[in-house]
Design goal:
The structure is a homodimer.
Chain A (H helix, E strand, L loop, with lengths): L17 E14 L2 E8 L2 E8 L4 H8 L6 E10 L12 E12 L16 H6 L1 H4 L3 H23 L3 E2 L17 E3 L7 E3 L5 H9 L4 E9 L11 E10 L3 H20 L8 E3 H8 L13 E2 L1 H4 L5 H5 L2 E7 L7 H12 L9 E5 L5 E3 L7 H11 L6 E7 L1 H19 L9 E5 L4 E4 L4 E4 L12 H6 L2 H6 L4 E6 L2 E8 L4 H10 L4 H15 L6 E7 H8 L30 H6 L2 E3 L6
Helix pairs in contact in A: 4-6, 5-16, 15-16
């Protein structure tokens, strides 16, 4: 037996017990006759003491222990003279009588402590060492707890967890599929699921009523920062439900998860339409922890001789409370920020509402004090506040202002950690017109239902009608992060066929790719709808963190590579022969 | 709102309530003025009544409902005059006032009832209809419950569920990998995991102490009946444990699962060595619900002039209790059975122990009555019993007799449903010598540790010594089915290198494929071990069923094909170009 207790559980009440502990050497310290070793495992750290007067050879052995050696130590629990109140085991130590080294360790390439000196690449390569660090252990254990709480809640609500297959069918719609060549079916391929969408709908047709699954999904995308080729969803579907019932159910889930993991009671979940979110926040995932709403200024800013504003489709401002003292340098920095290609604004106009009631703006040449007073009135700016204004084509400018709003909030520390503000964004457009491609895209996905009142218009309407269709689609947004999204689905063959046609499918392609689903709709498909949550993202948001990578045990880097195992890698030529494949590029093993 | 209640919950206490139900039309029956419709959902069946005197047009509508139509019905709960005690809602019915058809249904290609008339292929193609049937719904819901109970138990034991990656590295060892071409890394491939073996070991090196995961695994094997290319494991690993601690922990899991799903308290879990299991039962996964142990008869059957026995390495018998009356036809059938190529015996010898104390055998020409009496004494046969005897090369003959033992037990109904007999088979050989390939194979896998007392012999011993090494490997067997297997792992680089060498790896290949793991062993790897359970199989065994396919929502057929979605399938030529691949076989889309 390697241990009677773990390194986090001994207390003063255990004094006098003979115990055996095993773990990693965190650090050793020599004080004359005494040597102290901090022994670490997942559960905590316990101090070991070796007394050279008691057992000189054992003490000598202890002094030779390196960092991260794995040892077993046997001894008596005794009270510490100088207690460590920051450690759960800080009242006791183990007077060691016997010790054995289970394994040695080379010197780790970075420190295994709360903060490490290791760079990203090194930490990915030696992931097993990085995973020993407190922050990562807590993240991964948190993830496990979040998954279990998800399951407990959904099980209590009669949801059945059903495993859907990973070897499915490639469909060019959506993102790019990872494919898997079939050895037994030459020239044919499976695809890894981008989501279990069609299968969960099939389960509703199959009468399962309430389905969920915590499941890996795959997208072969060019990886931006903090995207992973494989990621995890909480995937859910319900039959015989309206949108309101879906939202109520998953508001319940979100409340449960926050309550049972970090003890936070979430406030109300307001509903906001997509149009309203864009108008007020310049984003379909608004961070409503702070105000600074977008205010249209066309009425007061146009027709005063400032050509840029006069020619703009939209002039829009935000009021930054108490920041009239922004320096020239700060304003220049913001101006540079909005002119970055990622944002793409041409420039930034500001108005300082001075303490004396006067205004100082970057467009004083064109506007009188009472013009600017009108801006202040509309935006709600008072003495001491700062107004920031952008102008241009409406859709782009709103988005730019939404981005600027977030940047200002970040700079001012308005994204208060520990404060969580959820909301449902609803009534998304059904279709998005792609001017370049000359075709519609599904705003959510091709299985999303138009709102009931739009069904007839969708079946019979003209092109412009299609652009105005609204969907029973919804996103759950918390603190400006979309943590889940879903919709009521089409469950009728005719409507699904119409949607595929609008999305540019030929009837043959639609049948080839989704014939099984449309066929299922002909055998008594119930109305149904659902949602999927980004599980990695949810972990990060609840913990107030930005990177999902720190909540994934074995993430891939931005080239889609696992640095530890060095995958992907070439395969043996025989394997390719068996798979009826030849490489057209470089590299063969 | 589509419903106020589901179809399984209304009782007499709800009498007089106005309710709304939604579901599928199971069947309709017309009785003069009254029409009855059984409405079905996952939760049950509720009887709807339409009265033509009350509402003639509604009743007419109801009479037109086809099987599997989806409807919503609103009405009053009332007591039934002729109650149905076999149905939870059998005391009430709904007097319908309003009804709407949510979706129609074509006539299903097979009956959607407890027993169906659909063939396998048809049921696979229309899986969504098959999934509506009670037996499949119960199986899939059982599976969900089993997974949740697994998680609850392991969570309470401090196990952390960690998701390991699906896009990993191909290693030619073991079964064949499914591979996934990498678009971003031309000529390189990921592999889908055959198991998360190396990752769970890495998690132990990473200090997670106790890991589990219910996880999909993938093997590209030629599919035999009841094998699936993707299957599910309960995968577990523990650090700082001995074999005894692993077995105790997972005996606990098995007990918990049987108790909390079917209310069965499992009996003791005896430990039996691999050698003993083969000797007594001719199998490393013995069904110990019944006796009929294998008895060596060399001492009494050889040197009596029967050349076949005299030349055999082993003569072995079983005593079939009370079956001396087996007819010639039955014995011929058994003889034919053992001569099938799957079994491969040359013939079958029998001895009937007659009621009068005499013996009648198929080898009376060679053996006297007192010779046969000696056989009876050794096998424990008494008057009325039947002795069956096989002979030949030892290993093969034991296995043949083990198979015959099971066949006889099946015929005699000795595999009592509802009786569960678990046992641990332990002390497996570490290595298996492959005479044809002239090399060793790992009996369990290349990461399995020899027993502690065999470590030194493994590092230094000769070829014959290697054959005799025993591993800390174990299988959990219930009713003759291996439901889990595992081992204590090697956690030392030198020993792991030695094992790879014995298994025929060059040092370069070992480093290329498993260098990350051996590297991890150099940074303080703790002793560790674990187990994996076949989750699909476990579902079937607990329910006393043989086929895992009925516990998988969307199984593949024996050609690895999903008949519903028709996968695998050809992909677009552009996809292949992006993946830097060309087909060498047929079919391009």
């Amino acid at each position: 037996m390697y241990r009677t207790h773990n390194c986090g559980e001994l207390r003063l009440a255990d004094e006098g017990k003979e115990v055996t502990l095993s773990g990693w050497v965190q650090v050793g310290r020599d004080f004359g006759a005494l040597t102290f070793v901090d022994l670490r495992d997942r559960y905590g750290i316990t101090q070991l003491v070796f007394d050279s007067e008691d057992n000189a050879s054992l003490c000598t052995q202890a002094r030779k222990l390196g960092r991260e050696f794995v040892i077993t130590a046997k001894g008596l629990v005794r009270e510490r003279t100088n207690k460590n109140p920051n450690r759960s085991t800080g009242d006791i130590e183990i007077m060691v009588r016997d010790m054995s080294i289970l394994n040695s360790s080379k010197v780790p390439p970075f420190t295994i402590e709360e903060e490490t000196d290791g760079g990203d690449d090194l930490r990915m390569k030696y992931r097993y060492l990085d995973l020993r660090r407190g922050p990562l252990q807590r993240n991964i254990i948190f993830r496990s707890k979040l998954a279990l709480e998800t399951r407990k809640f959904l099980d209590a609500q009669n949801f059945v967890e059903v495993e859907t297959p990973f070897l499915i069918k490639s469909t060019p719609e959506g993102a790019r599929d990872f494919v898997v060549p079939s050895r037994m079916n030459p020239g044919e391929f499976y695809a890894l699921p981008q989501s279990p969408q069609t299968f969960k709908q099939i389960l509703m047709v199959g009468g399962f009523d309430r389905y969920f699954q915590i499941v890996k999904c795959f997208r072969d995308e060019d990886l931006r920062a903090d995207r992973q080729p494989e990621f995890t969803q909480i995937d859910c579907e319900m039959a015989f439900v309206t949108q309101a019932e879906v939202l109520a159910t998953f508001e319940g889930l979100a409340r449960h998860l926050f309550q049972h993991t970090i003890g936070v009671t979430l406030p109300d979940f307001p509903h906001m339409t997509y149009d309203e979110a864009l108008r007020r926040y310049g984003s379909d995932k608004p961070d409503v922890r702070f105000d600074m709403e977008l205010i249209d200024l066309n009425a007061v800013a146009q027709n005063k001789g400032f050509a840029i504003f006069d020619q703009a489709e939209l002039v829009v401002g935000i009021c930054v409370k108490g920041q009239a003292e922004y320096t020239r340098k700060q304003l220049d920095a913001l101006t540079e920020w909005v002119k970055r290609p990622q944002i793409g604004a041409k420039g930034l106009v500001y108005v300082k509402c001075n303490a004396d009631g006067s205004y100082k703006s970057s467009v004083d040449k064109f506007y009188h004090q009472d013009d600017l007073a009108a801006w202040a009135q509309l935006t709600g700016a008072e003495a001491g506040d700062l107004i920031l204004v952008l102008s241009g084509e409406e859709e782009k400018t709103r988005k730019q202002m939404g981005d600027l709003r977030l940047e200002v909030a970040r700079n001012l520390g308005l994204m208060t950690p520990g404060v969580f503000k959820p909301l449902w964004v609803v009534d998304f457009p059904l279709l998005e017109w792609d001017e370049d491609a000359g075709r519609f895209h599904a705003m959510h996905h091709p299985f999303t239902s138009p709102k009931r009142e739009d069904v007839q218009r969708m079946l019979t309407g003209d092109h412009e009608t299609m652009k105005a269709l609204r969907a029973d689609a919804y996103d759950l947004v918390i603190n400006g992060v979309e943590i889940g999204g879903g919709s009521i689905r089409i469950h009728d063959r005719e409507l699904q066929e119409r949607n595929f046609k609008l999305l540019g499918f030929t009837p043959e392609d639609a049948e080839d790719q989704f014939g099984f689903l449309m066929g299922a709709f002909e055998y008594g498909a119930p109305p149904h709808g659902g949602i999927a949550f980004g599980f990695d993202r949810l972990c990060a948001v609840i913990n107030g963190q930005n990177s999902i990578r720190d909540f994934i045990a074995f993430p891939k880097n931005n080239q889609g590579r696992d640095m530890m195992i060095d995958a992907p890698s070439p395969v043996a030529p025989e394997q390719l022969v068996e798979l009826h494949l030849a490489l057209t590029g470089k590299k063969e093993k």
